[in-house]
C-alpha cells in the first residue's frame, strides 16, 4: 500500500508526476512520525519541479493542541486507494480517546503503536466511530475493552455489514484478518442528543452532523481549540464517496459546519485543513449535483451521465479516486434523490447496472 506508482516504462503520468512532492506546509505545532514497522510505511518522497494542484500527506500523529493529536494516513496523487482514513488521539490523565478504527488490521495496529508512543503507554478507554463505513470501523475490535461510541444508525449499519472480508483489498491489508470480530458501538446517541467528554482539561463534544455522507455522521468538536473531526463529511483532495449519502443534505451539513467556530478541520480522508478545503468538498458536490440534474432532466441514463461528468471534472480530475465508481455512485444517489426514492442503504442493483453502462460508454469512447 502507498508505494509510489512508477509506470510501466519508468515514466510518470501527469497525475503521478504532480504528486511527487513532499507533504510540507501542514505544520501546526509538532509532528510525531508514526506508522513504520507495522506494514503501513509512508511512501517515499521525491521532490519534483512540477507545481502540484494539491499536496501529498504523510502517515503521522500530529499534535494540534496540548494533549490533542490528529492521525493521518499517507495519501496524495501517488496513492491509488482512498480507503486511507484519518483518526485521533485525545489524551487524558489515565487514558486516551480515539476517533475511528481504520480499514484493516495493519492500519489499526499502526495507529495503536503510534498512540502508545504518543501517550507514553496509556490505553484507549473510548473509541468514537464517525460513521459505519468499513474503512472507519473494521479495526474496532482492536480497541476493546474500550467503550465504542457512535450514532444509533452507525451501530445498526455496522451490525448489518458484519465483519469486513477485505474483499478486493491488497494482500498486505489482510495480515491479521483472522483476528477480526464484530465490535459495533455499544453506546449510541440520536440525531438530537449531544455528548460531552472530558479528557484532562480538554472538552470533547459529540454531535450528529448528518444526514450527509451517511445517515449516522458524527462530528467531534473541541471548542477550546476550535478543532473539528468532520468524518467523511469532509474529503480533502480525495473524491467524495457518496454511496450511502444524500448529496443535497451533505451540502447543507457543510454549510452548518461553515457557521461553526472552527479553525482546523480533520477530514475523514485527506490532509488536515480548514474551512477553505471544506469549501472545495462543497464545490465538488455542487458540481456533481448540477451536472447530474441537467442530465436527469434531459433523460440521460445514470451510467452515461457519470461517464459524461467524468470527462468534465476539471480541477477535480487530479483528486484521488475521481472517476468510475465514485462518480457512478454519486450520480445514482443524485438520481434517486431527484426521483425522491433515496434511502440510507446503497442501491446495489442500480449501481451495478450504471457501472456496466459507464464502462461500456468509456470503452466505446476510447
Ligand atoms: Zn465513509
Question: Can you walk me through this structure?
Answer:
There is one protein chain. By secondary structure, this protein is an alpha/beta fold. The protein has helices at residues 14-19, 105-119, 134-137, 152-161, 247-258, 275-297, 302-310, 325-339, 348-365, and strands at 30-33, 60-65, 68-72, 87-91, 95-99, 123-128, 147-151, 187-189, 195-199, 202-208, 218-222, 227-235, 264-269. The protein is built from 9 helices and 13 strands. The longest helix is centred in the last third of the chain and has 23 residues, at 275-297. Helix 5 runs antiparallel to helix 6, helix 7 packs across helix 8 and helix 8 packs across helix 9. The strands form 2 sheets. It has an 8-stranded mixed sheet with strand order 1-2-3-4-5-6-7-8. The radius of gyration is 20 Å and the shape is globular. Zinc ion is lined by residues 131, 133, 213, 232, 241, 268.
List the helices and strands and how they pair.
Blueprint: H1 14-19, E1 30-33, E2 60-65, E3 68-72, E4 87-91, E5 95-99, H2 105-119, E6 123-128, H3 134-137, E7 147-151, H4 152-161, E8 187-189, E9 195-199, E10 202-208, E11 218-222, E12 227-235, H5 247-258, E13 264-269, H6 275-297, H7 302-310, H8 325-339, H9 348-365
Parallel strand pairs: 5-6, 6-7, 7-8, 12-13
Antiparallel strand pairs: 1-2, 2-3, 3-4, 4-5, 9-10, 10-11, 11-12
Helix pairs in contact: 5-6, 6-7, 6-8, 7-8, 7-9, 8-9
The structure holds zinc ion.
